[in-house]
From TrEMBL:
Stored Gene3D superfamilies: Vaccinia Virus protein VP39
Keywords of the record: Methyltransferase, Transferase
InterPro entries (alphabetical): METL9, SAM-dependent_MTases_sf
PANTHER family: DREV PROTEIN (PTHR12890), PROTEIN-L-HISTIDINE N-PROS-METHYLTRANSFERASE (PTHR12890:SF0)
Protein name: Blast:Methyltransferase-like protein 9
Domain of life: Eukaryota
């Protein structure tokens, strides 16, 4: 029997997308959250199992499928990107086109992770800082979680973001958009979600987080694994110093191996690991498929009383 092969370019794209989305429907999403083996006991005891996508995550995925079905919108985005790429970064383009929203955890999942990590809003107003907040969608989810945990106490949200188009979107959410975090002190909750592997000096950023965090506060750090650093804003696209060194004789380290290395690094930088989990870092799709994902390590940390 002959295999159908669409002739036109657009027909081929739509045909490929159909097959790609069918493949997405058949993936085992439980693997996004599960571990192949245990970590050292001091870390494994802090693991918060999430097991599978909850209702909010499933709804987000269904929404991305509906958006991805709008072929004409994606054709417009493709045309716009081909022009804008000459004078805007990819993040600026996403902010301008209002596309590429991300998802990590739902409000209930953030609640579970933060409670396991010992987070409690001890003062009012409660202060939340999101470093590299993007379009603010994830910031809002965490803010909703903090509001619930604090009994709807007064909440002040601060955000930094390198992209000017994303900063405009954050301002529309009534966030306090700032350029530097050096002037802030005693923040009760700091988010640094998938930023360390995208910044020029990740160790300086960790130092800034430690100095800005309140003594009893918590920071939430997310890092995509396998680790691959990429700096969008410099010509080499490399950091001053990578977070994790490759030392596996050419073999790709497992999620569990890299997770252990990163949490050891956090301890060496003056933090305590309070809780952690594994989850997908989801992104809205395009003409080729409905959504994309990477795997995130998400760690709740506090700062040690003395950096030893």
């Amino acid at each position: 029997m002959a295999i159908y092969r669409p002739r036109g370019t657009l027909a081929r794209v739509i045909h490929a997308k159909f097959h790609n989305d069918n493949s997405l429907d058949n993936i085992d999403t439980r693997r996004w959250y599960s571990l192949a083996h245990s970590l050292p006991p001091r870390f494994q005891s802090k693991f918060v199992p999430l097991e599978q996508p909850d209702t909010t995550t499933v709804h987000w995925l269904e929404r991305t499928k509906l958006l991805s079905a709008n072929i004409w919108m994606h054709l417009w985005h493709a045309l716009a990107r081909s022009i804008l790429q000459f004078f805007m970064t990819q993040t600026d383009i996403n902010g301008f086109l209002k596309r590429g929203s991300m998802f990590i955890l739902s409000e209930d999942q953030f609640n579970k992770l933060l409670v396991a990590g010992g987070f409690s809003a001890s003062s009012e107003p409660v202060t939340l800082l999101d470093i590299g907040a993007g379009d603010g969608e994830i910031s809002l989810r965490v803010a909703n979680t903090v509001a619930e945990l604090s009994g709807n106490a007064d909440l002040r949200v601060f955000a930094t973001e390198a992209s000017w188009t994303m900063r405009d979107r954050l301002k529309k959410l009534n966030f306090n958009v700032i350029t530097e975090i050096g002037g802030l002190q005693n923040m009760e909750l700091i988010l640094c979600l998938n930023v360390l592997d995208r910044c020029f000096d990740p160790f300086k950023l960790l130092e800034d987080i430690r100095s800005t965090l309140a003594p009893g506060g918590r920071a939430v750090i997310a890092l995509v694994l396998p680790y691959m650093h990429y700096v969008e804003t410099n010509t080499s696209h490399l950091p001053i110093r990578p977070l994790l060194e490759s030392s596996n004789n050419g073999r790709q380290a497992s999620f569990e191996e890299e997770a252990t290395k990163f949490m050891e690094l956090l301890e060496n930088c003056g933090f305590n690991v309070e809780s952690w989990t594994k989850a997908p870092y989801l992104c809205e799709g395009d003409l080729h498929q409905s959504f994309y994902w990477l795997i995130d390590l998400i760690v709740v940390i506090s700062k040690k009383t003395s950096k030893t």
